[in-house]
Specification:
Elements lengths: L1 H42 E6 L2 E7 L6 E3 L3 E2 L2 E6 L12 E3 L6 E2 L12 E3 L6 E2 L12 E3 L6 E2 L12 E3 L6 E2 L12 E3 L6 E2 L12 E3 L6 E2 L12 E3 L6 E2 L12 E4 L2 H5 L2 E2 L7 H4 L2 E3 L2 E2 L2 E3 L6 E2 L12 E3 L6 E2 L12 E3 L6 E2 L12 E3 L6 E2 L12 E3 L6 E2 L12 E4 L5 E2 L12 E4 L5 E2 L12 E4 L2 H5 L2 E2 L7 H4 L2 E3 L2 E2 L2 E4 L5 E2 L12 E4 L5 E2 L12 E4 L3 H6 L13 E4 L2 E4 L11
Parallel strand pairs: 2-5, 3-6, 5-7, 6-8, 7-9, 9-11, 10-12, 13-15, 14-16, 15-17, 17-19, 18-20, 19-21, 20-22, 24-26, 25-27, 27-29, 28-30, 30-32, 31-33, 33-35, 34-36, 35-37, 36-38, 37-39, 38-40, 42-44, 43-45, 44-46, 46-47
Antiparallel strand pairs: 1-2, 4-5, 22-23, 40-41, 47-48
């Protein structure tokens, strides 16, 4: 009996223990099932949209390795909202699941320790500044699902050395890789059509650049400061390159193209938008161009087209070309001879500036205006032929042409711009045509070698408006020749009622002046520097002479007398008594 009771008690205790284990096990399982949702809630907040959940906030600010779940409450996680991880300095790695299609603006901005991230094949959009300032990031793969890459997406990722860009991105937006100093190589697929402003600004480590065949436009400062870039291949699809796109790309030594006509069709916004400015050599189908023959289909050579192309030794322009744009051949220092065909009617500012190898220039008979600094600093230019069709010579057009010895301004030219021939210090002789009516300030500044000014009509010379200060070549030449005869006794034409500013300035070889018109006025410095002047023969009375407006007419002149119809005056205007024999 007692044995039976003991056995029963033993069996009951065993059953109770078994049930306890089962219950405890069940309770543990339930706890495990509850843990995952609880952890997720503690790590992130979510916003529900029509197509799924977006991660909207990081709750665990101490987290270092972030794993974003593919689902929340059995609904797909499809995106990361703006600024979610902005400034999270502890994050080292991020795992983004398949199904996420969008990474918002500034989502991972300034995650300074972030060094590892995977972007799945489902992502189609990365927002503006999404990874800006992630300075520990060294490489990243952008999947082919990606179609939109935001402004400044990887700006200042200073250690980013390697990136694979999606083949479906059409636009590299402004500042996308701004100051990615360590980036070494960029390959853009044919899908990319536009590179926006400053996209690769200051990518100092970039040494290799491959542009796809779909590129049409390169924006302002796009590659500015890419100082290690040595070579660029431009596809024929490019039609526009904006200001300073290749500024400070100082190691460039070659630009490679496949179509010269396509190259001539590019709109370069300034000199530094053209990579030739630094490269110096243009390669057509891998052959450097030294004898440049402009294609017959090109009617106008656009601004900056061949700027800096120092490898070009000869230039052939066909008879269909009507215009040459600003800075078109600026710094083409290898050019030696230039003949502008008769078809050319416009020549832009700076067109051949700093073509320091040019020795001969012939300007065709249709050109009317020579642009500002068109041949500035062509230091070896000796032979210059300007056609009768030219009406105006622009400011500093031939400044610093230090080898120019003789100059003829042809009939037809009416205006010579300021500083047009400044520092042409080998210039010895200049012939000025009767058509010239204006010579600008400092037009012949520092032309210290001048010995002769040749004219054909003294009245026409008197009608020229000279600018202030060394606009008159006589300032240095001192000798004025009329029909090849040196004038020492100057006779002012009777038709002249005003002797203008600086008209005879520097004429130190004049010993006498005859002024028959008693109503004449004499402007500033008209006879300045007449050091050998001894007398003026005046066609009016002494009273008339004293009434003549003289406006500091002469400085540095000799002690002359003025012979009037009724007596003689000295330089000071005092009556000179005749000596009685």
């Amino acid at each position: 009996m007692h044995k039976s009771k003991r056995l029963l008690i033993f069996i009951l205790i065993a059953l109770m223990l078994t049930m306890s284990v089962i219950l405890i096990g069940c309770d543990k399982n339930e706890s495990k099932n509850d843990e995952k949702p609880q952890d997720i809630i503690e790590t992130f907040k979510y916003d529900l949209s029509s197509n799924g959940y977006y991660v909207s906030e990081l709750l665990d600010v101490k987290a270092t390795d972030i794993v974003i779940p593919s689902k929340y409450n059995d609904i797909n996680v499809v995106g990361i909202k703006n600024n979610v991880f902005d400034g999270c300095k502890n994050i080292k790695s991020i795992t983004i699941p398949n199904g996420v299609s969008e990474i918002g603006d500034s989502a991972f901005k300034d995650c300074k320790q972030l060094s590892k991230i995977n972007i799945p094949e489902t992502v189609t959009k990365i927002g503006n500044y999404a990874f800006k300032g992630c300075s520990a990031l060294t490489s990243i793969y952008l999947p082919n699902s990606l179609t939109s890459l935001g402004i400044g997406a990887f700006e200042r990722c200073s250690n980013l050395a390697e990136i694979k860009i999606s083949e479906n991105v059409a636009v590299i937006k402004s500042n996308t890789f701004y100051e990615c100093y360590s980036l070494e190589e960029i390959v853009l697929s044919d899908s990319v059509s536009v590179i926006e402003n400053s996209a690769f600004y200051e990518c100092r480590g970039l040494s290799s650049l491959t542009l796809g065949n779909g590129i049409t436009k390169i924006g302002n400062y796009a590659f500015s400061g890419c100082s290690r870039l040595t070579k660029i291949v431009l596809p024929k699809s490019v039609v526009q390159i904006d200001s300073r796109a290749f500024e400070r790309c100082s190691r460039l030594n070659g630009v490679y193209i496949s179509d010269l006509q396509a190259w001539c069709n590019i709109d370069f916004k300034d000199s530094l938008s053209n990579p030739l400015y630094y490269a110096g050599k243009l390669f057509l189908k891998n052959q450097v161009i030294s004898d440049l023959i402009v294609p017959d289909s090109v009617k106008v050579i656009k601004n900056n087209t061949f700027v800096g192309c120092s490898a070009v030794k000869s230039l052939t322009l066909h008879e269909n070309i009507t215009g040459i744009g600003e800075s078109a051949f600026y710094f083409c220092s290898g050019l030696t001879d230039l003949t502008l065909p008769n078809s050319v009617v416009t020549l832009g500012d700076f067109a051949f500036r700093d073509c320091s190898g040019l020795t001969s220039v012939v300007i065709g008979n249709k050109l009317q205006s020579i642009g500002m600094q068109a041949f500035y600093v062509c230091t070896r230019l000796i032979d210059l032929t300007i056609s009768d069709s030219v009406v105006s010579i622009g400011e500093s057009a031939f400044g610093l042409c230090r080898s120019l010895v003789t100059l003829e301004i042809p009939n037809g030219v009416t205006q010579i711009g300021a500083r047009a021939f400044e520092y042409c210090n080998s210039l010895e002789e200049v012939k000025i045509s009767d058509s010239v009516n204006f010579i600008g300030d400092y037009a012949f500044e520092q032309c210290s070698g001048l010995r002769a000014v040749l004219i054909n009509d003294l009245e026409a010379w008197c009608n020229i408006d000279f600018g202030a200060n060394r606009s008159n070549p006589l300032y240095y030449a001192h000798n004025l020749y009329l029909n090849e005869a040196l004038i020492t006794e100057l006779v002012i034409p009777e038709a002249i009622t005003q002797i203008k500013n600086n008209t005879f300035e520097g004429g130190s070889e004049f010993v006498s002046i005859t002024i028959s018109n008693s109503k004449v006025s004499i402007a500033k410095y008209a006879f300045d520097g007449f050091s050998k002047l001894t007398r003026i023969i005046f066609g009016g009375s002494m009273v008339d002479w004293k009434k003549v407006t003289k406006e500091v007419a002469w400085r540095d002149t000799g002690e002359f007398i003025v012979e009037c119809t009724d007596g003689t005056l000295n330089k000071a205007g005092e009556v000179v008594e005749e000596e009685i024999n």
